Each structure stands twice: as structure tokens, then as C-alpha cells.
Amino acid sequence: MSTTDRLRSIDPAVFWPAIAITIGFISWGAVAPESLASVTQATLSAIISGFGWGFVVSTAMFLVFAGFLAISRFGKIRLGADDELPEFRTVSWVCMMFSVGMGIGLMFWGVAEPVFHFGAPPHGLAAAQTKEAALLAMKYSYFHWALHPWAIYAIVGLAIAYFTYRKGLPILISSAFTPLLGKAVAGPIGKTIDILAVLATLFGTATSLGLGAQQINSGLNFLWGTGEGTGIALMIIAVLSALFILSAVSGVGKGVQFLSNINMVVAAALLLFLAIVGPTIFILNTFTEALGDY
Q1: What's the CA angle centered on 286, arms 284 and 292, to 5 degrees?
Q2: Four-point Cα dihedral 142, 55, 157, 97, nearest 10
Q3: Which of 54, 79, 222, 284 lies deepest, with the highest CB count within 10 Å?
Q4: Could you state, in order of their start, the residue ranges of all structural domains in the chain?
């Protein structure tokens, strides 16, 4: 697809509202960061206190539904024409899913979350810095990073892929709502769904990028004393953004697949290093016991 065709494929009803809201948030954060932080934190607290139960129940439903699809006849439906073969090897698909689906978030919070809960167990369910706190911390971390989030990713991804590759609809979140909305999916309701999807993707990516920049900044400062500050963080974000754009422009077959394979090799090497050098028996005991609790 040429650049002109790509520009023509942009939906103004989705693009411009999403751009306007994004610029509004960026401007708000630049002019009054304390105000933005206060409002977003208050909103998050209200959502968690009022609808936290809904998140827990819905993630469990996603997991059950994903398991049902996997073992039922629906799990055999090919995401493409009946005679098409997978574009990549299974190993490459797994690497891409882990790298793109979790990425820097897992590398950061995979360590930070259990350490945080170990020092401050949620809801006072255990005394801080005890064996019980360690198991509780791992159990919460499993909930956030194990089967439950992958079930959410799988269901949403399957919904988009099914209506795109089996029904020929656009690669949009709103396409998954076609059975519910019918022709209304092309109207204001469908546009609103796509705008929310763009904003959710943008803010989610920004969070991962910010965490990654902070982590790299801290690592560079620890190793070589480069210092930590906004300027260095912005340079790191610029480099990461350039690599991301280069990977995306290169296409899935070249850029994304290549970087994902490298990521998984490095992650596997890190896991092997920690398993050998670290307290191996303690790691295995904690892993299995916390996994059973999960």
C-alpha cells in the first residue's frame, strides 16, 4: 500500500477526535502535571473501589471462555482461508506474542511487583517481609501476569482476527461488535469504540515506554554513572521510538519477528543465569508453592 493509499484509509471521524484528546492530555500534563496526576489518581481509585470486583470476575470469565474455545470445535477454526497455512513458525509466533504482548512491562513489574507486595502485602493479608508475604506477593503477580491477562489478549485478538480474516471486515475493534450492533457499527457508536481503542492503545504504550525508559536510565546510571534526569529519559524514549518505528515499517516478517526472537533469546538467557547463579532451590520451591496458591 502506497503512502497516498494509507492516508486515504484514515478515518477522519476516528483520527481527529483521538488526536485532539491526545493533544489535550499532553498539554494538560505539560502545563499542570500535578493537576493531571491528582485527577487521574482519583479516577483510578474510584474505579478500583467501585468496580474492582468487576475486573476480577471479568478476567475469570475471559479465562474460562478462552479455555472453552481452546478445547472446543471453535478452536479449530483457521484465522484465514481454509487452505491457508500459518505465516510464521509456532516458535516465532510465541516470541512475538510475548515480546509485543508483555514486553518491557513484564521485565519491569516481574521484579518490581512481587518486591513491592513483599514489603507491603495488600489488604494486610500477611506480615511484611515474611514467607507468607513472599507467597502472597507471587500469587498476586501470577494473577496479573500469568493466564488471566493472556486470556484477555487472546479473546480480544481472536475477535478482531476472526472478523478480519474470516469475514473480510476492517482490522478495527469495532468490527468485533458487528454481531451486536449490525450496521450501526459504521455509525457514531462504532466510531466511539474505535476512538476509545486508539486512546487505550496510546496510553498503554506510553506507560510501557515510560517504564522502559526509567528502567534503562536507572541501569545506565548504576553501571556507568550517567545520571538520571528528564533529558536522558527523553533521549532514551527517542531511541526506543525510532527502533519501534523502524521495526514497524520493516513489517512483521522482518522487523517485529527479528526483534521478538532476539528478545526471547535474551530473556531465556537471563532466566537460565538466575536459575544457575541464584538460590535455585528457593526459586523452585517458591515458584511451585505460589503457583499452587494461584
Answers
A1: 100
A2: -20
A3: 79
A4: 8-293
